[in-house]
Amino acid sequence: MTSLNIAVLCHTGAGGSGVVATELGLLIAAQGHAVHFVGPAVPFRLAQRCAVHGPYFHQIGSFAYALFDQPYPELSAANTLAEVILEQGVQLTHAHYAIPHATAALHAHAITGRAPVVTTLHGTDVTLVGAEPAFFHTTRHAIERSHHVTAVSRFLAEQTREVFRTEREIEVIYNFVDSQRFRPVHDPALREQFAREDEALLIHVSNFRPVKRVADVIDTFAGVLSELPARLLMVGDGPERVPALERAQRLGIADRVTFLGSFPDVQTVLGLSDLFLLPSSKESFGLSALEAMSCEVPVVAARAGGIPEVVDHGVSGLLAAVGDVDGLTQAALDILRDRSVRVRMGQAARRRAVEEFHPSRIVPQYLAAYRRTLELR
Ligand code: GMT
């Protein structure tokens, strides 16, 4: 089979869509395909992982001109991508997130007459930002004109058709997790740095945006703490971090909550934990929940968006309605009070992650989508 030469556009900060783009690019490069990331900075999880056989990184240039009241970054993105397409012989661009990436990729396609666009919809590009009047038509255009469109859950595909009133065919390709890297961590000395042996260790990982309902994480944890000894790890950063810390302080539980900030090798702490909390109001998939499941950590989450397609309620975790802190707290207690329940659900969670969401199952679906788009075999 001929090897491919693709460009990838994705968000570069901490966030699931950039993680999926990065891990996919790394796996595809490892199979001998040329992969060119194009962005304003090296994507979060790609740092230190570019190599002589790829993936490669090309920085988007910027240009300041007194007359321009804004930097117009999508024009620079389209320009740099067009350069990379022409200079590197790129055959196809994979844009993760409809705006601005699919828009920039379609622009580069129009400039070069090459590199059809595969767009992967990840979530708020459809459910929040893209549906805003300020972006609606641009997002709809990106979805309609991309040469192939995928979504990370059935929920998101349906939501896209509904929000944008489009008949566009959308292929569902689930996210994946590296179960070798995301695995249980049995390191009592490391765990002791965060919790005593008799304390339950709960964890939340996100980019602390309003959709994550971080206040519900704190309130759920407070409910758990009133019933049993516990600690909470908060991993990540974003606008809701300080309000979450203040809430923990107001509730008098701040000494039980550790904010660790944002770092790429999150598996080290996920694998030590007993329970993952994800009370989001919107979540097209919930990659962080899948990473926890792969580490044998059961999930307590809101029944939002695509989460039920990932976490099977009653088997690998428990779900409650969005905003139902009492329900989330009860669910967490049901799992944490009985070790056998926690272990059984944790094992079921890992089994599901390995069987349903392994890269060997998902990556070929993307490669097939690329080949179909290029009409290659
Ligand atoms: O759409 C977003 O909010 C950002 C995006 C990201 O880059 O983190 O998150 C989305 O994509 C992830 C990867 O596919 C999914 O796991 C997240 O569920 C999804 N976030 C939301 O839907 C809120």
Please explain how this structure is put together.
The chain is α/β, with parallel strands linked by helices. The chain folds into two domains: 5-176 and 358-374, Glycogen Phosphorylase B (Rossmann fold, 3-Layer(aba) Sandwich), CATH 3.40.50.2000; 188-356, Glycogen Phosphorylase B (Rossmann fold). It is 42% helix and 16% strand. A seven-stranded parallel β-sheet has the order 3-2-1-4-5-6-7, sandwiched between helices. Helix 2 (73-88) packs across helix 3 and helix 8 packs across helix 13 (325-336). The protein starts with a strand and ends with a helix. The mean pLDDT is 95. Bound molecules: ligand GMT. Ligand GMT is lined by residues 11, 15-18, 20, 122-125, 152, 175, 211, 282-287, 305. Ligand GMT binds next to helix 1 and helix 4. Keywords: Transferase. One of its GO terms (biological process) is bacillithiol biosynthetic process. InterPro entries: Glyco_trans_1, Glyco_trans_4-like_N, Glycosyltransferase_grp1, Thiol_BshA.
SSE layout and pairing:
Blueprint: E1 5-9, H1 16-30, E2 34-39, E3 56-59, H2 73-88, E4 92-96, H3 98-112, E5 117-121, H4 124-127, H5 136-145, E6 148-151, H6 154-163, E7 171-172, H7 188-192, E8 200-205, H8 214-225, E9 230-235, H9 241-250, E10 257-261, H10 267-270, E11 275-278, H11 287-294, E12 299-302, H12 307-310, E13 317-320, H13 325-336, H14 339-356, H15 359-374
Parallel strand pairs: 1-2, 1-4, 2-3, 4-5, 5-6, 6-7, 8-9, 8-11, 9-10, 11-12, 12-13
Helix pairs in contact: 2-3, 3-5, 8-9, 8-13, 11-14
The structure holds ligand GMT.
